[in-house]
Amino acid sequence: MDDFTTPEDLFKKEFGKMKKAGKDYSKYFPVVIIAMLIIMFLKGGIYSIGPDEVGVIQRFGKYVRTTDPGLHFKFPLGVEKVTPIKVKKIFKEEFGFRTLSPGVKSRYSTKQYPQERLMLTGDLNILDVRWIAQYKVKDPVKLLFRTRNPVGNVRDLSEVVMRRLCGDYTVDEVLTTKREEVALLAQEQLQTLLDIYDTGIKVVTVKLQDVNPPDKVKPAFNEVNEAKQEKERLINEAWEEYNKAIPRAKGEAHRTVSQAEGYSLDKINRSQGEAERFFATWSEYKNAPVVTRKRLYLEAMAEVLPKMKMKYIVDPNQNSILPLLKLGEEGGTQ
Amino acid sequence: MKNIIKTILVVSLFAVVMLFFSSMFIVKETDQVVITQFGRPIGDTIATAGLHFKLPFIQVTNTFDKRLLEWDGDPNQIPTRDKKYIWVDVMARWKISDALKFMQSVGSERGGHARLDDIINSATRDVITRNMLVETIRDTNRILDREVQEESTVTIAEEALERITKGREKLESEILTRAEEIVPQYGIELVDVRLKRLNYVEEVRKKVYERMISERKRAAEQYRSEGKGKSAEIQGRMEKELKLITSEAYKKAQSLRGKADAEAISIYAEAYNNDPDFYQFLKTLETYRDTVDSNTTLIVTTDGDYYKYFQTAQ
What we know:
The complex is a heterodimer.
Chain A: H1 7-22, H2 29-45, E1 46-49, E2 53-59, E3 62-67, E4 70-73, E5 80-86, E6 91-95, E7 99-101, E8 107-108, H3 114-117, E9 118-120, E10 126-137, H4 140-145, H5 150-166, H6 171-177, H7 179-196, E11 201-212, H8 218-285, H9 289-304, E12 310-314
Antiparallel strand pairs in A: 1-4, 2-3, 2-5, 6-10, 7-8, 9-10, 10-11
Helix pairs in contact in A: 5-7, 6-7
Chain B: H1 2-23, E1 24-27, E2 31-37, E3 40-46, E4 50-53, E5 59-65, E6 69-72, E7 76-79, E8 85-96, H2 99-105, H3 109-129, H4 133-137, H5 142-145, H6 168-182, E9 188-200, H7 202-272, H8 276-291, E10 297-301, H9 308-311
Antiparallel strand pairs in B: 1-4, 2-3, 2-5, 6-8, 7-8, 8-9
């Protein structure tokens, strides 16, 4: 039984030990302080750079190095300072409009920016242009140290370039055919200017969004489009008419020709038939001309005479036959 | 006694640390520093970034930016040489090239902006008023020189057809040159001047809108009349082709009929020539059959063959 220790006994024993040790805590005090200092030192010295960033390190204000994504160490206590710069991210600036909240159905600011949007074209007209510029950081060191306001540079120079380009194109070109050309040139020229300023920014793209004639002039522009449509319509209608008439006329022409061909066949066949009939009759007639002639005559008379309505047989010596006749009385047209 | 020594030690240590920190200063990569001693500048401008030292307390650092700085003017209403009033909005970029001079002559960036306002605005006004409107808008003569690919019905306004000799970029550099000459005395370097925005004043804009509307109306009218013209052309062509088709058919038909008639004539002639008298006899009888009907009245004398037997049996 002596060897047997209950859990309670064990607990008491350990508790006693701990109490004893507690008395010696003061001796660890400096160690704890040093440890805390080390932790603080490390905490100020370790920094992490996100996957889309680089860190620009300045020692006493002077640029010393650029670090890649990951965990890194620097001198703490304000000796080295790190500025993370997002180099992968593509930034966007909008001109003539502002997106309030992007999304499936983006909301746009109702505020108008006429000063940004309206520009003069080369044919001295006014055009309402909205566009965007996308850019990213090409050189974080230049970005931080060469110009004070990189975004301001992008905005100002974008406007400079876009206006200069629109000044070299006509309203119609910017509206329709040369849209892409203008955007492409704007991108190139914007990049050139940003490089001259040493901004460390790379222009990803410049895109024209809505390009419109000013509101007051819009109806007139629409009228031109309508007139174009009307022109097409008139032409189509005329062709329709043409297509309706010509094939029909061609068909009718064929009919006329075919009818003539029919006529000639008919005519020739008839003549040949009649000629043959005559030959046949004639060849028999030659054998007995006198009798045949008389017979034919009498047959014809027998056929013809009964058809007549009135027959007057007069003596050749009778001088005037007119009194006998009441011409027109019954045999008139009615 | 021991306590006093301890206190002195602590105080002097504190003073040394203070002195040390006060004599040390940091120049950032973006800055340049001028050291002054009781207002008097000491030494050159420090433009290299890093840790630097100075005399504590009596020397003071004056920090200036060394990056490219912005300047954006207010829009100005300026007439061009051809008396067109336009709003001109200019932007510029500048640098503090001589921090010492800058500090002495202008003091601060705010002061620098005030100077630049005066200088750039007046240079802009000078250049714009000396040039035609088209010079400020266009950069090249592209519009006049381009080859018009598609037939454009919208004609360009007369005033826009003038050739330019300089163009916008040239004007910008003229403004820059004028302003550049003046600014070095302020320790400023003017890097770039650009015409940012340029617009008609309200009254001119209204007139331009009116002109644009009338141009478009004219174009619309042209399209309409082109449509009508083309339609009439097609109609004319149709009528011509119709006549051609029917007349050709008629021609062919007539000639076919003629040939057939001719052939029939020759066939008849050949046959009947054998005995013209008999033919005449036969044909006459035939026509009697055809021409006599119930409306016919016959008056014959008894001289004729048929009725002669009324008079005599011989």
